[in-house]
Amino acid sequence: MESLDLRVLTDALSWKTSGHGVTLVTVVETWGSAPRPAGAILAVRDDGVVSGSVSGGCVEDDLIARIKVGEHAGLNGQGKPSMIAYGVTKDEAARFGLPCGGTLRLVQEPLVDTAWVSELLARTVNHELLARTLSLSSGAVQLRAAARGETMAFDGLTLTTLFGPKWRLLLIGAGQLSQAVAQMAQMLDFEVLVCDPREEYAATLHMDNVIRVAGMPDDVVRDMGVDAHTAIVALTHDSKLDDMALMEALTSDAFYVGALGSRRNQATRKARLIEHFDMLDSDFAKLHGPVGLRLGAKTPAEIAVSIMAEIVQVKNAASLSAAVEPALGCVVA
């Protein structure tokens, strides 16, 4: 679950609390490629204001028009969830910009009870992974803890979607490069944390929404509750600080661990950690060092691009292993 969809729920809760009618629309099935995956959600306010997307813009206008004329009560008129499909025929596909007869199936539900939204948002902030199950017959919602590897499920009667914590990036070091990486990571919707016990560097860190974490790197990594939504990158170029972070990070559940330094420096670091800290050769399997994709980067901004590109590549490894599909345009057959 993308944090974009958590923002959609945050907006939906705010709108509902302020007295608006709100409709949630979830992608449950597509034929062909799509700019938004199954499980993606859109919130539509009763006056047509939207948060999120389900098609990249192809069908949102029609959904807004339906809801503004009163369909936020549910297509069946009973305030319950219902199915809606676009592009079933070639004429409809052309009308909604779904070329080649592509089809998009959605579940539309009026947001009535907001208790589950509040609970879900609170629990994901605490880095829980949740499954939300919606009954189409009653509109009832149930939340439960989910397991890694679960996927969205829809059988025509119930819809189960996954909501996970926001992706996090812990940077060891608060220097110029770290600040460039932090800025780019925020644009990619990561929660950014920075640890640097060197006050002369940390004092220069003045970035909105970047969290400075006090303490030594190994303690910070050990205590922060690293999970599979966490990336850790050591950027101090101070072997003592970087090594402290890596000792903990490499045996954690972090999906990505990277370290600045040349290939020679990485080999020296590995030998040092094995010799003095009883680390195993296998512990280094997920270390990305030198950190970042090989782009010939020279400036801090270019290096930041290479680092974040590699983090995104690793984060999206599951989808990259599948057949590559176009990411632009509408659903196509």
Walk me through this protein's architecture.
This protein has 11 helices and 15 strands. It has about 325 residues and is α/β, with parallel strands linked by helices. It has 2 domains: about 120 residues, no CATH class; about 150 residues, Rossmann fold. Helix 5 crosses helix 10 and helix 7 packs parallel to helix 8. The radius of gyration is 23 Å and the shape is elongated. It starts with a helix and ends in a 13-residue tail after the last helix.
Outline the secondary-structure elements.
Layout: H1 3-17, E1 22-30, E2 41-45, E3 50-52, H2 60-68, E4 82-86, H3 90-95, E5 104-110, H4 115-125, E6 130-135, E7 141-145, E8 153-154, E9 158-163, E10 168-172, H5 176-187, E11 191-195, H6 199-202, E12 210-212, H7 217-223, E13 230-234, H8 239-249, E14 256-259, H9 263-277, E15 287-288, H10 300-315, H11 317-320
